[in-house]
Amino acid sequence: MLIAGAGPVGLAAALELARRGFSPRIVDDGTGPTPLQESRALGVNARTLTLLSPSGVAERIVTDAQPIERFRVRANKKILIELDTREVKGRFSAICALPQGSTERLLMEVLSTYGISPEWQTTVIAEAISDPQKPEVTLRRADGALETVQLDILIGADGAHSAVRKALGAGFPGEALEAYFYLADFRYAEPADAHFAEISLFDPGMVGRLPVTANIIRYISTLENFESRIVHPAAIAEKTWVSQFRIHFRHVEPMAKGNVFFVGDAAHIHSPAGARGMNLGIEDACWLAWLIAEGREQEYSALRIPAVKQVLKQTYGLTRLVTMQRPLAVVARNFFAPLLLRFGPIRRTLLRSVAGYDTPKPPWIDWAE
To answer: How many domains is the chain partitioned into structurally?
Structure first.
């Protein structure tokens, strides 16, 4: 059994398999886990914490993470939407912030107790998988040495440009938004209020504010010159990371063929709106590990596709909502959004989405939500 990709999704798959008695091999062409200064995926929702609780990782995340208690959306200094995530009851907070590199290291710590560690600088070379029932791939190490392995199960957790998906000839249909998104992380000389996330809408464009740690805030925007619009909460110590990207909405269907399975970004990519990307991928990994242990892995794609499509639809809608530019649409949004959120059912639905509780409950965990 081989897992290609040692990001949070691949590590979660390895850990969930290991605690069920399997000894998966996990490889990655990188030199190590995500650098801590590159926060990347930030949000860890309650569904993910529930899934990672049996392994003990959830409790470690809660200790290190920053709970996000409020979400706000502003337009022209007026608050359109305000959500208190503490309204979501359960064992865990609806959502908390922890840099992806920290999450990966916590997963690796627990995985190592099973005697399993990622094989870094090991690239999967799979020009074509001719028999997905008995997949065969070649691994290339940093020194150039090649190793051909025949597998009973191959899990592609190797990201949006998945070599495993391409080798299987699986399509990745979808679309990309025209606009670029820009981000910058700032570390402040003293702690900032890191208990809330906020989006400020302009005409056009937006700037989002997300906590990373107690004194690091991420700003994300559709405006290239967005830094001039930031109202900093304290004196800046340093800019720790900058990046830019385009948002794609794509998914592979089916998410498996024979004994080759896709999880996380190898299976679906979408907007970071709602902080669902890493969380949805960890869901994939945990469901697949359970199904493999039950001898039901061929049910994986049928069980996961509905949840994936639902989240892609939600994140597409949220992204369009905060990036719209047509004046009439902006006026309508600013008028109706506050009215709709006054209705309890709509508010509860949105909060359950933030917590990740809108996808099927894992049947192997008997905890109330």
So the answer is: 1
CA atoms within 13 Å, Cβ hemisphere of 127: 2
> Does some domain include residue 232?
no
Q: Would you say 82 and 71 are in contact if contact means Cβ atoms under 8 Å apart? A: yes
The answer to whether position 98 is within a domain reads yes
Is position 329 within any domain?
A: yes
Confidence class of residue 180 from pLDDT cuts 50, 70 and 90? confident
- Between CA 60 and CA 58 the distance in angstroms is 5
Nearest residue to 140 (alpha-carbon basis) of 27, 42, 35: 27
Give me the pLDDT at residue 228, please: 92
In the chain, what's the furthest Cα-to-Cα distance? 62
Helix (H, G, I), strand (E, B) or coil at 131: coil
Question: How would DSSP label each residue in 222-260?
Answer: S-TTGGGG---SS-EEEEEEEEEEEEEEEE-SSSEETTE
Residues in the chain: 369
How do 268-269 and 236-251 pair as beta strands?
A: antiparallel
Note whether residue 367 is domain-resident.
no
Q: Say which CATH number the domain at 101 has.
A: 3.50.50.60
pLDDT tens sequence across 305-351:
999 999 999 888 878 777 767 777 776 767 666 667 677 787 888 88
Q: Which of 219, 222, 301 is nearest to 258 (CA)?
A: 301
Strand order in the sheet with 43-45: 43-45, 95-97, 66-67
Q: Which domain holds residue 57?
A: 2-69+91-177+248-355
pTM of the predicted model as reported, rounded to 2 decimal places: 0.93
